[in-house]
């Protein structure tokens, strides 16, 4: 197959890939500060590249990456004041209710095309990945296609990954991964001197330990994990496949959202004013105070 990227494929290539493995991968992330040494799109770049590696090895089609994700509100704003500061952040942020409603329509589109399984991979952390799992659990009874959501670090945990590294933020793990997956997007010569006072555009403290070779091992492990999950989704679909499939309409999606998601949206972890371990909101004069308590 010439490529596995949906937006770069011709119709006959899409049909062939679909017939071989009716799995679709949805990569998510955003542009946000990741130290002076990483490109701003790190989250999405790594999620997309890992999905492409998985699809190339195990089959499936990779949907166009989504670079608009959750930030600026709730505990994300608290974190941003501490780790980014008052500099121009170059964020592509949307509130949780926009991101998650978009996910609903991504599910609808893939299901209407006849995919049997969909993996939703976020390279952006914080508690949004837990909310993604909650959302997909709500949606699953309404769709024939089998759904699974995860942060990419789930595929890089001890017990599966040889590297066994938990996710970080612009530190050893994320820098190593991006270095392996998109080497033009990492420039370690831009790293500040060790011990230089920060914050350094939200750079993780272990960034100087990054190694491209370690990133290659992590990327391979993550792609293999996604391949396992894709096979599990196809097997699950075979066990639960309906005799007939009917596309879900836009109107039905809106009803699911208004009746089942919106009533519990305030309980989503990414909507909480403070995340675990945080004790203070952003300062009154901080740029991060603006959307701290914004509700949908």
Q: Can you characterise this structure?
A:
- The chain is of the alpha/beta class and 296 residues long.
- It has one domain: Rossmann fold, CATH 3.40.50.
- It is built from 8 helices and 6 strands, in the order αβαββαβαβαβααα.
- The strands form 2 sheets. It has a 4-stranded parallel sheet with strand order 2-1-5-6. Strands 3-4 form a two-stranded parallel ribbon.
- Helix 5 links the parallel strand 5 and strand 6.
- The longest helix is centred in the last third of the chain and has 29 residues.
- The chain is globular.
- The model has no long low-confidence stretch (mean pLDDT 95).
Give the strand order, joined by hyphens, for the main sheet: 2-1-5-6
Proportion in helices: 25-40%
SSE string, helix = H, strand = E? HEHEEHEHEHEHHH
The coarse overall form would be: globular
Quaternary arrangement of the chains shown? single chain
Strand content: 5-15%
Short synopsis of the structure:
This protein is of the alpha/beta class and 296 residues long. It contains 8 helices and 6 strands; from the N terminus they run αβαββαβαβαβααα.
């Amino acid at each position: 197959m010439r490529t596995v990227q949906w937006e770069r494929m011709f119709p006959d290539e899409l049909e062939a890939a679909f017939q071989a493995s009716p799995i679709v991968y949805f990569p998510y992330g955003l542009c946000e500060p990741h130290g002076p040494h990483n490109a701003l799109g790190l989250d999405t770049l790594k999620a997309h590249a890992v999905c492409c590696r998985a699809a190339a090895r195990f089959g499936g089609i990779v949907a166009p990456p989504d670079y608009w994700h959750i930030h600026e509100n709730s505990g994300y704003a608290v974190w941003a004041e501490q780790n980014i500061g008052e500099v121009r952040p170059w964020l592509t942020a949307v509130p949780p209710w926009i991101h998650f409603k978009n996910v609903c329509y991504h599910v609808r589109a893939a299901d209407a095309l006849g995919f049997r399984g969909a993996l939703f991979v976020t390279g952006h952390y914080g508690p949004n990945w837990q909310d993604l799992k909650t959302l997909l659990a709500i949606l699953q009874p309404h769709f024939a296609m089998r759904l699974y959501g995860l942060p990419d670090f789930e595929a890089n945990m001890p017990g599966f990954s040889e590297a066994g590294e938990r996710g970080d933020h612009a530190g050893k793990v994320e820098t190593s991964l991006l270095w392996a997956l998109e080497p033009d997007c990492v420039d370690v010569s831009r790293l500040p001197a060790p011990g230089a006072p920060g914050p350094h555009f939200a750079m993780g403290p272990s960034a100087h330990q990054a190694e491209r070779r370690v990133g290659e091992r992590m990327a391979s492990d993550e792609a293999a994990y996604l391949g396992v999950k894709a096979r599990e989704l196809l097997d699950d679909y075979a066990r639960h496949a309906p005799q007939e499939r009917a596309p879900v309409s836009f109107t039905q999606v809106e009803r699911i959202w208004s009746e089942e998601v919106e009533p519990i949206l305030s309980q989503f972890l990414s909507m909480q004013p403070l995340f675990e371990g945080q004790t203070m909101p952003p300062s009154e004069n901080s740029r991060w105070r603006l959307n701290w308590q914004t509700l949908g």
